[in-house]
Amino acid sequence: MLVVDAANVIGSRPTGWWRDRAGAARRLHGAVAAAVADARLPGPVVLVLEGAGRSGVAAGDEAGVTTVHAPGSGDDEVVAQVRPGAIVVSADRALRARVEEHGGSVVGPGWLLERLDY
After folding, report:
1. C-alpha 109, offset from chain centre
2. What residues pair up with 67 in beta bridges, in sequence order?
3. Does domain 2-113 have CATH number 3.30.70?
4. CB within 8 A of 42, min separation 6: which ones?
5. What is the spatial distance between Cα 18 and Cα 39, in angstroms, rounded to a whole number?
6. Helix intervals (H) in the chain
7. What is the mean pLDDT of each run of 10 residues along the chain (118 residues)?
8. Is the pTM of this model over 0.85?
9. Where in the chain are the domains?
10. Residue 16 burial (CB < 10 Å; 0-12/13-18/19+)?
11. Contact in structure between 94 and 76 (CB atoms under 8 Å)
């Protein structure tokens, strides 16, 4: 299982995402879905959206990606999605410790971005 901290991944590059958070979430979802379809990413994949990014992609399953809308803290929702053996994509150090407490591991946004056309 791969859990993507979308805000952290989107924010890892200065692409102007702050002007259109919903659009940035939509673009990331599309790139992740394409990578799942091409077997560049292991499944299942959970994309966690928070704040304004939630309006970019509906919650639910689409194209091999389960999108989850965090009702509050995105970090709390990422941790709620972690199962033993899950890989979380995030550069957040505090989140890393919480994920590891739940049996998951963490890779940085660069790991994911190398596998995407994004």
Report:
1. 9
2. 47, 60
3. no
4. 2, 87
5. 30
6. 6-10, 21-37, 74-81, 93-101, 109-113
7. 97 92 97 96 94 96 95 95 96 94 96 92
8. yes
9. 2-113
10. exposed
11. no
